[in-house]
Each structure stands twice: as structure tokens, then as C-alpha cells.
Specification:
Chain lengths: ~375, ~500
């Protein structure tokens, strides 16, 4: 990193904040650009308008007044132009998408346009995007973020244990397990557990949308709903833990191993310091920065990084919501979700910058 | 030493180091197998294979959703698939009269499990010599219990304006009449509307009246005889002539569609999964290697430029990498893929979609390598021999290619190896979501299983996933052994 000594900590952080903000703005604008330039949103909105116009014409023809053809045409055309101006289709795409993107930044997220999006959230059609996201966010946290947290805790406990036993049987098993699990996509193992435990053995649920009611009950204060949530959550969580555990332990092991082989560790061991003390003071302390980086970025990535896995389980969280928004051409929801995904990631990176300074005295020099 | 020979030496050394480890040996064998199979598949693959793959007619003689044949050892009731090429079968009866000519074939099918075949299909694509006026084709079936279903097919074609006849009998039009005729005494109890819906039950089952109230149908194992009778109206054409033409026809086929198929089974359209998986090899490897190669090349160049020249260009590249690294890749990728899928209407859509996904993957995957290469370059740049080369007036290009690049080879190789499976898995993941480009990739086969099958068709879900995993595993193992080369501290 290009850091002049005389800049000082505050200006270093200010620079980071600036670039992270630029990244945030770019992410949302690139998303808007893709939606606009490819004509994707226009295609979907035109289809909606045509469908409504067709339904309206049908209703007029079937109405008891039996209006004649020219009156029907006039009414239908009037309805069509109303719809076109309602959806803003009389303006070019940038006149719609750019204000929408700007509104996203000030958290004026608008309303969800696609019924499938509100369906994933379990809300009425055209609900505000804020409500839709705040309905789905806890479901992803309950499942994916928790699963990743469990993995991290286990990896941080097992990693230091194996780092003293490099080359032993248990170490070889862990490396082999990590290599194999690194090769399997989480979503495919999800299909596999769903196939075996869900469909063949019938011990796990096959539909996961009903978890919505359980989580809603829990959030409104009913603690007994936890049992219901567990009933749904254990299969996807188990899948994620099985797949991610290997690479995570391997990662922690690799980070610690570099330190273990350093001379100062050998010297500490040679001096006869107790193993726990060496581990805490001489091994964990220097490797805390890379470990923290992986932990924080890993947790931040759980919101938008498991779209395919959520979709395989049809888990009504942020990933399924994002895919529903894309298939439904729901621009406000897509922009808002991109904003949330990037924001969480960027904030995590900024927190890391602060932690680096707090943890590594060299940066403060 | 020239640049090329220096890189070659470093490759020879790398290969020796990799092969000295167990993971390296396994990876090497797997890689060799992958390359051989891919090359073989690429050579065999018909040019428009994705069109074949997506046209259902091409697969019409295959059973649908059928497990592989070896599934019988897992307890599946497997009804054998039999396909009778009548071009090669000797007619059982030939009779000639003036202006008339009858040829009939009898073929036998042994049903040896308590289940129904999926159906019977007949395909005809024949040419007739001058003088043949018309042809009546009749299919009869004699069941093991002696019941005869007559005129399951009764089709007449005339050859007045044409000499060819091309017709496929996917359904047996005369089945209802044949059943009603054969089981005359059961007619009051038969559910006539069910006959065309479950034709295989009536073709291969035994009908019994239980308690004088309802008809129970059970599979009837034994020897079935299909009788294909052709009667021609001809003007002075001999039976030998006609037989000669029949033997030269494009298609003249009777198929008893089984319930198990081939090595890998079939999907909902009857497509042979073994074939799709086989042709998926080169596509997967090309996707993975192409993305990895391009991304690695960009990363190396950007890292070298950034580290070697420094200054404004360094700042620019580093900030760019920083910003790219903060934008979530997967959502953008899904968005781009879906947008192109929904809006692009031009030609070569599968190729355009794949290329777009490629491009996005490349744009987002070179950053981390560029950072590594930059920091390595920075430290190499201050080495004494680089300073010395500079002092004697070596050009920048010479220093980079002679003194810096060869030292980076292990890192570049590691990056190449690690990004290959990423691209394959990401492409497969997009397919599973429903962003399908049409090529028979492993991801595509998986996605069809998810969208069109139920989750119980294990033969449809397991093999593509395992193949993806084996390819990834190859590169992961290769990476593991490279890691020990790059980071000697990892060794015992």
C-alpha cells in the first residue's frame, strides 16, 4: 500500500474510506448500467404493461355495457399511456435508472415491483423494498451466517491443535478432507443432502419456505418457535458446515504454520516455555491479522455469496430474494440488494483497516 | 540462456518437484486422464452438438427418466431396451400375387421382469422403386398368453407423387380398438379413456376380472411376438427388388422402450446422459483453462507493470484492483448472465452467453494475482543482480523477462491452477440457477435435473457433480503440491 509516513493514521483511514465509497457507488451504478444497457428491465416492464392492457381490453369486451370497438380502442389506448407514464417507459432508461440508483444511496429504496420478490419475503405485492429486505435478512443470518460462524469457531479451535502435529495422521486426514471438500461446490452437496436425507430417507424437510412463519413467530417473541426453526435449518447448515470446515481448518493451519516455523517460535519452545503460552503469545498474536481478515470478510460474504446454495434449498433469504428480483426484473430490489451486499463488505473492510492499526504496532509508526 | 529456455528449465524443475509428492502424482495422473478424455471427446463431438442435444426428436427412441442399466443390481426393476433394425432381419413370410406383394417380419421380445416397458415405437424412412403404388403397414402383437392385439398400427401410404416414405409412430393409434377387440368380454368393465394414457400397461400386461367388478392389470412376463406386415400394391416389381430397397432404407426400426438405459441413464427428454457427460469434458476444461489463462496473463502483466514501474501507473492499478475487490462478483455475474439470456436474440446465443460470463469472470479474477506479483516484483527489483543489469544498460524488457519473470513461474502456475476449478464451478453454479446457455455442460445437466426432474433421479444428479469435483480435485491437488514448492516451510 502506498502510505507516506507523514500522512498519519487519520488520513490513511480517510483515503481507505474514500476508495471503499467509490467501490460502493460503482457497484450500484454498474448494476444499474447492466439493467439499463441490456434493455432487461425494459423487456420485463413492457411485458407487464402488455399483459395489463390485454387484461383490460378483455374486461371491456366482457363488460355488460357492450361498448363498441372504437370506444374500446380509445379506452385501451388511454389505459396504455397511463401505464407507460406510471412505469416511466416514456423516458429513456437512464432517466429512470439513474434517479433510482441515487435514491438507493439515500436509502429511499422504493417499492418492490415483482410479485415473486414479495412472495419470497412473504409479504403483500408492492411492499416497500426496506420491508422485503428486513424480512429476508434475518433468515440468511439464521442459516448461513450462523453456519459459517460455527465453521470458524471449530476451525479456530482445531487449527492450533493440528499445527503442532504437522505430518501426523490427523493432520493428513484434515489436509485430505480439505482438498476433497474444496473440490465440491456447496450447492451440489446441498442437492446431495436434499436427495439423500430429504427425498430418500425422508428425515429432513424437502420444502424450506415454511420456515418463514416459524422465524416470524420467533421474532415476535415466541421462543418455542426455535424448535420449528431448527427443524428446517439443520439440513442446510449441516451441508455448509461439512463443506466449509475442511478448507477453513486448512486455511487456519496454513496461516499458523508460517509462524510456527519462524525462529522466534523455535527459540521460545527451546527455552522450555509451556505449549499454551507459546501458542498464545508467539503464534496466535502474530497471525491474528490474517485470521481476522478471513473471519470478517467470510462473515460479510455470507449475505450475497450463497445465492446458488439458497436457491437449491429454496431458502427464503437474501440470495433467493436476489435471484427472484433478477428473474422478475425488479430494478429497485436488485439495486437495493447490490447496495446492501457491497455495503456490508465495504464496512467489514473498513473495520479491518482500523483493526490492523489497533493490532499491529508497526502500522502506527 | 534465453528467456524461453529459462522458463523451460524452471518448468522442468517444477514438474520434478510436483511429481516427488503423492498429491502431485495423483494430480498428474488425473490431469493426464482429463486431457486424454477431453481430446477424444473434442475430436468425436459433432460440430453442432448443442443443437442435437437440445432437439428432443433426436432422442425419441430412448426411455425417459431411466436409470442406468446397472441399476438392476441396486434393486431397480430393469426392463431391457431392445431396438430391432428390420433392415437386418430376414422376413418371416413373403408372398407374391399379381399386383400384390406381402412381406411380414416377426420379432420376439422377452420380458423377464414384473414391470412394463415404457412403450413401443416404430420409425420408417424408406425409398421405394418405380412401380410401387402403395404400401400398407400393420403392426400386430401376440402376447405370451396368446392374446393378439391386432392393427396397433395400420397405416397406408401411396407412392404416386413421391418415392419416399418417412413416418414415425411414437404412439400406437390403433391401441384402443385392438384392446377392445382382444378383450371383448371385459369391455363393460374397462376404463376406455385410460387406454391411450397408459398404453404400456395394455400392451405388456395381463387383464383379469376380479370379483366380477373391476379389471386388474398386472405385468405379464414372457415372450412377445411383434408382427410387422407390409403389403404393397405394385406394377411388375419383384419381391427381391423391394427387399433390396428395404435393406437400403434410412430407418426401418421397431423399438421396445425399456426402463433402464445405457451406462448413465437418461433425462426427462430421453437424452443419453453418458453422451452429454462425455462431451462435457472438453467444454469444462476449456471454460476453466481459458478463464484461468487470460486472468493470469492480465494479473501477471498488471502486477509486473505496477511493481516494476511504480508511480502513477502503480497507484492507478492498485486502486482499480482495490475497487474491483470490493464489488461482489456473484451477484453481478448472475445479473449479467440473466440479462443476456433474456434480451439477446441474435445468432449464436450459447456462445455469446458463455463469452459474456467468461469476460466477467476474467475481469474479476486477475486482481489478487496482480497484488502478489507486484509485491514479489518490488522485492526482486531491489536485488543486486537487477541493479547490476541496470548499470550495464539492460533494457527494462530484458530485465523483466530475464531476471524477474522466471522467478515468478511457481506463483503464476499456482494461480493458474487455483483459478481453473473456480471458473468451472461458477459456470456450473450459474447453470444450476437457470442461466443456461445450451451447451451440454455438466452444470447444464445438473440444472435440468433441478428444473425438470424430481430430486429422486440420483443418476441424473450425482455423476455431473462428481465429474465437476474430480476436475476441481485435480487442480486442488496440483495446487497443494505447488504450494509446497512455493512455500517450503509447509513441508515436513
Amino acid at each position: 500500500m502506498w502510505v507516506s509516513r507523514d500522512l498519519g493514521i487519520t488520513s490513511v483511514l480517510a483515503r481507505r474510506a474514500l476508495f471503499l465509497t467509490i467501490a460502493l457507488i460503482l457497484a450500484v451504478f454498474i448494476t444499474g448500467l447492466i439493467l439499463g444497457v441490456t434493455g432487461y428491465v425494459d423487456t420485463i416492464i413492457n411485458a407487464i404493461i402488455n399483459e395489463e392492457v390485454r387484461a383490460y381490453r378483455q374486461a371491456l369486451i366482457m363488460s355488460p355495457q357492450k361498448p363498441n370497438a372504437s370506444i374500446i380502442d380509445a379506452l385501451v389506448n388511454q389505459r396504455k399511456s397511463e401505464l407507460i407514464s406510471y412505469w416511466g417507459m416514456d423516458k429513456p432508461w437512464y432517466a429512470r435508472i439513474i434517479p433510482m440508483a441515487l435514491n438507493t444511496f439515500v436509502l429511499n429504496l422504493g417499492r418492490a415491483q415483482s410479485p415473486e420478490v414479495t412472495n419470497v419475503a412473504g409479504l403483500q405485492p408492492y411492499s416497500p423494498v426496506v420491508d422485503v429486505i428486513s424480512a429476508c435478512l434475518p433468515r440468511t443470518i439464521f442459516m448461513i451466517t450462523f453456519a459459517e460462524a460455527i465453521v470458524i469457531v471449530i476451525a479456530l479451535l482445531v487449527g492450533p491443535f493440528v499445527v503442532y502435529r504437522i505430518g501426523s495422521l490427523i493432520d493428513r486426514i484434515i489436509v485430505a478432507y480439505a482438498a476433497i471438500m474444496n473440490a465440491f461446490p456447496v450447492w451440489w452437496v446441498g442437492m446431495l443432502t436434499l436427495l439423500t436425507l430429504g427425498y430418500q430417507l425422508k428425515v429432513a424437510p424437502r420444502q424450506f419456505r415454511p420456515v418463514i412463519t416459524e422465524i416470524n413467530r420467533f421474532l415476535s417473541g415466541d421462543v418455542t418457535a426455535l424448535v420449528g426453526i431448527l427443524n428446517y435449518v439443520w439440513l442446510p447448515m449441516l451441508t455448509i458446515v461439512i463443506v466449509l470446515l475442511g478448507p477453513w481448518i486448512y486455511g487456519v493451519r496454513a496461516m499458523l504454520i508460517k509462524i510456527v516455523k519462524e525462529d522466534f517460535v523455535t527459540a521460545a519452545v527451546a527455552r522450555g516455555l509451556p505449549e499454551r503460552h507459546v501458542l498464545r503469545r508467539y503464534i496466535i498474536r502474530p497471525s491474528i491479522s490474517p485470521i481476522l481478515t478471513n473471519v470478517l470478510l467470510g462473515l460479510a460474504g455470507t449475505l450475497g455469496g450463497y445465492i446458488i446454495t439458497e436457491s437449491v434449498f429454496d431458502w427464503p433469504g437474501m440470495g433467493t430474494l436476489y435471484y427472484a428480483a433478477i428473474t422478475g426484473g425488479d430494478a429497485p430490489t436488485i439495486l437495493a440488494l447490490t447496495y446492501v451486499f457491497t455495503l456490508v463488505y465495504v464496512v467489514a473492510r473498513f473495520i479491518l483497516e482500523i483493526l490492523y492499526i489497533a493490532l499491529d504496532p508497526r502500522v502506527r509508526l | 540462456m534465453s528467456f524461453a529456455s529459462k522458463v523451460y528449465d524452471s518448468w522442468v524443475w517444477l514438474r520434478k518437484e510436483i511429481l516427488s509428492q503423492l498429491s502431485g502424482k495423483i494430480a498428474f495422473v488425473l490431469l493426464l486422464a482429463l486431457v486424454v478424455i477431453s481430446t477424444y471427446a473434442a475430436v468425436l463431438m459433432p460440430p453442432d452438438y448443442n443443437k442435437y442435444w437440445n432437439v428432443g426428436v433426436y432422442w425419441r427412441y430412448n426411455p425417459k427418466n431411466a436409470p442406468p442399466e446397472w441399476a438392476s443390481s441396486l434393486g431397480y426393476l430393469c426392463v431391457t431396451q431392445r431396438s430391432y433394425d428390420l433392415r437386418l432381419v430376414e422376413p418371416t413370410k413373403i408372398s407374391e400375387a399379381t399386383g400384390r406383394l406381402d412381406i411380414s417380419y416377426n420379432i420376439t421380445y422377452d420380458l423377464n421382469v414384473e414391470d412394463y416397458p415404457q412403450g413401443v415405437k416404430v420409425g420408417v424412412d424408406i425409398n421405394m422403386p418405380q412401380g410401387v403404388r402403395n404400401l400398407r403397414l400393420v403392426l400386430n402383437l401376440i402376447k405370451p398368453d396368446g392374446t393378439i392385439l391386432r392393427r396397433l398400427i395400420d397405416y397406408t401410404a401411396d407412392f404416386i407423387n413421391t418415392s419416399t416414405l418417412r413416418v414415425d409412430f411414437d404412439e400406437l393409434g390403433g391401441l384402443t380398438t385392438a384392446v377392445l377387440e382382444a378383450y371383448r368380454d371385459l369391455v363393460p368393465r374397462l376404463d376406455v379413456s385410460e387406454i391411450p394414457l397408459r398404453p404400456n400397461k395394455y400392451l405388456f400386461g395381463t387383464l383379469t376380472l376380479v370379483n366380477n367388478r373391476e379389471v386388474v392389470i398386472k405385468p405379464l412376463p414372457g415372450r412377445y411376438v411383434f408382427n410387422v406386415a407390409l403389403s404393397f400394391r405394385v406394377d411388375e416389381v419383384s419381391s427381391q427388388d423391394i427387399l433390396k430397397y428395404l435393406r437400403r432404407s434410412q430407418t426401418f426400426l421397431v423399438v421396445v422402450v425399456g426402463t433402464c438405459y445405457g451406462l448413465m441413464g437418461t433425462d426427462y427428454q430421453g437424452r443419453d446422459l453418458a453422451e452429454g457427460l462425455f462431451y462435457g469434458f472438453p467444454i469444462a476444461l476449456v471454460i476453466g483453462l481459458l478463464v484461468a489463462l487470460i486472468a493470469t496473463a492480465i494479473g501477471v502483466v498488471a502486477g509486473l507493470v505496477s511493481g516494476y514501474y511504480g508511480g502513477f501507473i502503480d497507484e492507478l492499478i492498485q486502486r482499480f484492483v482495490d475497487i474491483l475487490g470490493s464489488i461482489p462478483l456473484l451477484p453481478i455475474l448472475i445479473l449479467v448472465g440473466k440479462s443476456i439470456q433474456m434480451t439477446y436474440t441474435g445468432e449464436n446465443k450459447p456462445l455469446v452467453m458463455l463469452a459474456t460470463i467468461f469476460a466477467v469472470l476474467v475481469v474479476f479474477s486477475w486482481g489478487s494475482l496482480a497484488i502478489v506479483i507486484r509485491s514479489m516484483t518490488l522485492s526482486l527489483k531491489s536485488e543486486l543482480y537487477v541493479e547490476a543489469a541496470k548499470a550495464v544498460g539492460a533494457s527494462n524488457m530484458r530485465i523483466i523477462s530475464k531476471h524477474i519473470l522466471p522467478q515468478l513461474v511457481p506463483y503464476i502456475a499456482a494461480s493458474l491452477v487455483y483459478s481453473t476449478p473456480n471458473a468451472i464451478i461458477t459456470e456450473a453454479g450459474l447453470s444450476v440457477l437457470g442461466i443456461q446457455h445450451g451447451f451440454p455442460t455438466w452444470g447444464n445437466i445438473l440444472s435440468e435435473a433441478r428444473l425438470n426432474g424430481t430430486m429422486t433421479y440420483w443418476w441424473w444428479i450425482l455423476p455431473p457433480g462428481f465429474l465437476i469435483a474430480i476436475v476441481s480435485l485435480t487442480f486442488v491437488l496440483l495446487g497443494l503440491s505447488l504450494e509446497k514448492v512455493v512455500e517450503p516451510r509447509l513441508r515436513r
